[in-house]
Design a protein that fits this description.
The protein is of the alpha+beta class. It is built from 17 helices and 46 strands. The longest helix is centred in the last third of the chain and has 28 residues, at 619-646. Bound molecules: zinc ion. Zinc ion is lined by residues 4, 6-7, 9, 38, 40-41, 43.
């Protein structure tokens, strides 16, 4: 048994006496045996102790002798001797307790005094796999089968193998008393009810690393588990870091406010879960046991899939290239149930940060672009617990569908972090990059777990993202860095090589996202005819409306080109807030509830006839508020289209709009000049259009475009009257191109785009228009149709620069007029705030440049949006 591994010398034949004291001092007592040099060849050997029924444990490396081992610990003449063949270990008897922890060590000593038993939902009783205390798990030979039976007297008999004995050991233990100090239940079965132990996700891949654990109880029986002086502690044997493979016992020590639920996040597949009961607060377990987690056995199959992620302001939507074609990815629960005594509660008294159980919307493929925090949002700031150190489940999650919330959600939700400027709190604003990173990393983990259930995950995964047009270069660069870091992190957590689709358009190292959101949406469905001149994408999201005007250029001219892009915070969320604050919701519904309902339905349309949400006597108010909301937006769009014809940005920008009467445009003297018609395809994208259903069933498909045509042409007539353009200026004709699922347009476009590289150069120089004629000095003004850049402000040709700190004012006399029945800015400005609000647009003091922001955007955000609450 103890033979030199080099020269085969049998150590048992050596007639030597080794001092245990010396061996310990020289650090020759290892966890598995004695480190001895072979006297023949000098080789260092480890002499295993197990075959002698001896073992070494603990930090102090004390010796134990198993009960019934043939090797004896003999005492004589003040000396202790342990014979290993002719070789002997010895030490003075008075030092015995320093080096020998146990003689006749037995199975009871490594087991709990009682084992907890849980009743599962199907009525079955679940006892632990092993009754062993977790510190002795290493003595169990877990490669050999273990068994447990309930005995006739209500106890549990366990049979399992130890590493230190040949024969299996057997021990019979009572069940932990459900109500200590009280008589046992009538049926004699001591079993805890309502307890669940979950592992997330349910995967069988060996290289998956990150797991979450949840131990909790539901219902009235929770008192049994947690009442009185009883405490329950739960541990898991797993790795705590992605950087190393060592396992250790880690506590599920993130505890819910009601103490009923505890969580852990670990970075290897857990092997065991230990549940320990402490009664009477003595800090010593009075009962407990170990549950085995089935080991993962598979490797990723050889396949490569692609997912597309539309990271929106309010919602994020996911699709994948399923075998039968591009498909939305429904998010569902990916829990593996270990103890099945209760379902997760549906009514939440506190923010539950377990991974989402189900996505929102009819296809369940939407997740809110929100971070749900476990503690109040403000508490993290108080503790200066930085976002970059947050862990999913322990610190945050993504809100789930299919639950009712009985706490104030707004105190626990961080929304709008896609846009740095939309985050109100300065502490979080500084960390917007980390918020995005944490969110996308967790989102991708959820997506991959869900894809596993479709057997659609191989060793690598392509991810398509897009970016909003309103991101400037710096924001795009930051977003690319966020995607790279998030995908790298989730690659380590899953063992899947997650690759974001990025390109280097200029060669070199700089990476960009190939596709913007508007173009992705267009790719999903659009087909335009020869008569079409431009596409106008209007994506009304929850937080922002993103607008892109794309001029379609004919070959052999250059690519289609964006002539205008802009984004402002005037969107569906603003109207939702106006409806909520304007008393249109039934009593008991607030804005959080409303938002959740909109998400559950996937769009506003389905909610319109909901009896539970809206007050019936407010139908008119709801319709009117919605009309005002779209009317102000339409006024901006009318001006945008007219402005581009007036300042010739559209027609003279290298492309040539096809006009039916083009042939006669030169005109004979005296004959009326034929006019071009500038055909614009309006793409209504995003959930914010859903409110249009309150006004007219064909509002989005027809009415809005008709009104837009009329209002844009009315402005052009005024321009002719003002002598700004000749009478033959092209007129506008807008028609609506409704996609079947406008919210999903972006993800399907992203999947369509894979492999094709028909992307246009983004060579726009102007992002918006002034929108409202503005006095910029005593004798100076900037006309409404002038363009505005995004911050890098040079005055456009023919316009006077604006003096820094100049007071900006608008006269109510200026054209174009607001449409009838639409209150003008001056009528709304009862508190005389216009001048103060417009100050945001002027350059900083002592600088002479151009508008930093569009005055009309300021009106939309700061005047029209708040006014919706009052307007009826
Ligand atoms: Zn040797």
């Amino acid at each position: 048994m103890a033979v030199c591994r080099t020269c085969n010398l049998d150590f048992e034949k050596l007639r030597v006496e080794l001092s245990v004291e010396t061996l310990a001092r020289e650090n020759r007592i290892g966890p598995r045996g004695l480190h001895l040099h072979c006297p023949a060849c000098g080789e260092q050997n480890e002499i295993e102790l197990k075959p002698y029924g001896l073992f070494v444990r603990g930090e102090k490396r004390k010796l134990y002798r198993w009960l019934g081992a043939q090797t004896k610990i003999e005492n004589s003449k003040g000396q202790c001797r342990i014979n290993l063949g002719a070789m002997a270990l010895s030490l003075p008897e008075k030092l015995k307790d320093d080096y020998i922890a146990g003689d006749n060590f037995n199975v009871e000593q490594i087991c709990h005094k009682a084992v907890p038993v849980f009743r599962q939902l199907d009525g079955s009783l679940l006892a632990p796999d092993l009754p062993v205390r977790r510190e002795y798990l290493d003595l169990v030979d877990t490669s050999r089968p273990a068994q447990s039976d309930r005995t006739a007297r209500g106890g549990y008999r366990f049979t399992f193998h130890l590493t230190v004995t040949e024969q299996p050991v057997e021990v019979t233990l009572p069940a932990v008393s459900v109500r200590p100090g009280q008589p046992p239940p009538a049926d004699g079965v001591e079993a805890f009810e309502g307890v669940h132990l979950l592992l997330w996700p349910k995967v069988n891949y060996k290289s998956w690393r990150r797991y979450f654990l949840r131990f909790g109880c539901a219902g009235t029986t929770a008192e049994d588990l947690l009442g009185g002086a009883r405490d329950v502690k739960v541990y898991t044997y797993a790795g705590k870091s992605l950087d190393e493979s060592a396992r250790e016992w880690l506590a599920l020590d993130t505890v819910s406010p009601d103490r009923r639920t505890r969580f852990a996040c670990v970075e290897t597949r857990p092997e065991w879960v230990g549940v320990e009961f402490e009664d009477g607060g003595r800090g010593e377990p009075t009962g407990g046991g170990l549950w085995r987690i089935r080991p993962a056995t598979d490797s990723y199959p050889e396949l490569e899939t692609t997912v597309a992620v539309d990271f929106g302001t309010s919602n994020t939507c996911i699709a994948w290239d399923a075998p039968h074609g591009a498909s939305l990815l429904a998010i569902r629960s990916c829990d593996e149930v270990v103890i099945n005594g209760s379902s997760l509660p549906n009514r939440l008294e506190f923010p539950d940060t377990w991974p989402p159980r189900q996505g929102f919307g009819p296809s369940q493929a939407l997740l809110p672009t929100e971070i749900l925090t476990r503690e109040k949002v403000g508490d993290y700031r108080t503790r200066n617990h930085l976002v970059r150190d947050w862990m999913p489940v322990l610190d945050f999650s993504i809100p789930t569908s299919r639950v009712e919330t009985a706490y104030n959600e707004t105190e626990y939700v961080i929304p709008d972090f896609k846009w740095q400027n939309m985050i109100g709190d300065a502490w979080y604003k500084k960390q917007h990059v980390d918020l995005q990173k944490k969110y996308l990393e967790f989102l991708l983990l959820i997506v991959i777990a869900e894809m596993v259930t479709h057997n659609a995950i191989g060793p690598s995964l392509n991810v398509e993202f897009s970016y909003p047009l309103a991101f400037d270069d710096e924001m795009q660069d930051k977003f690319v860095a966020v995607l790279q870091e998030a995908t790298t992190a989730v690659s380590r957590q899953t063992g899947v090589n997650v690759m974001p689709h990025l390109e280097s358009p200029l060669g070199g190292g700089k990476k960009t996202i190939p596709l913007d959101e508007a173009r992705a949406a267009a790719l999903s469905a659009s087909s335009y005819g020869n008569d079409d001149s431009a596409c106008l994408y209007v994506d009304i999201g929850g937080g922002s409306t993103d607008i892109a005007l794309l001029e379609l250029r004919r070959p052999p001219a250059r690519h289609d080109t964006y002539v205008n892009i802009c984004s402002f915070e005037y969107a569906g969320g603003g109207l939702a807030a106006a409806l909520a604050e304007g008393g249109c919701l039934k009593a008991g519904s607030d804005i959080s509830h409303f938002r959740r309902k909109i998400r559950e339905a996937g769009s506003v349309t389905e909610l319109m006839n909901s009896d539970t949400l809206f007050s019936n006597n407010k139908r008119n108010a709801i319709t009117n508020k919605s009309s005002f909301f779209y009317a102000y937006l339409r006024q901006f769009l009318s001006r945008l289209l007219a402005a581009h014809l007036i300042n010739k940005a559209l027609a003279t920008n290298g492309g040539r709009p096809v006009a039916p009467a083009d042939a006669g445009a030169a005109g004979e003297a005296g004959a009326p000049a034929a006019r071009e018609t500038y055909r614009v395809l309006l793409y209504p994208l995003g959930n914010g259009w859903g409110f249009g259903g309150f006004i007219d069933t064909r509002y989005v498909s027809r009415v809005f475009a008709q009104l837009l045509t009329g209002e844009a042409n009315a402005i052009l007539e005024e321009a002719i009257g003002a002598g700004v353009v000749p009478p033959d200026v092209p007129r506008v004709e807008v028609s609506s191109q409704v996609l079947s699922e406008p919210k999903n347009a972006v993800v399907f476009g992203l999947l369509n785009n894979r492999g094709s590289a028909q992307l246009s150069a983004q060579d726009w120089s102007w992002r918006s228009i002034v929108g409202w004629t503005t006095r910029t000095g005593p004798a100076q003004k900037a006309e409404w149709f002038r363009p505005v850049t995004g911050g890098s402000a040079i005055a456009p040709p023919g316009a006077d620069p604006v003096n820094g700190g100049a007071i900006l004012e608008c006269s109510s006399e200026e054209w174009p007029a607001f449409p009838q029945r639409l209150p003008t800015p001056h009528e709304l400005d009862r508190r005389n705030e216009l001048t103060r609000l417009l100050a945001r647009c002027s350059p900083t003091a002592h600088e002479q440049s151009w508008f930093l922001e569009s005055p009309f955007h300021v009106l939309l955000e700061k005047l029209f949006k708040p006014a919706l609450k009052e307007l009826t």
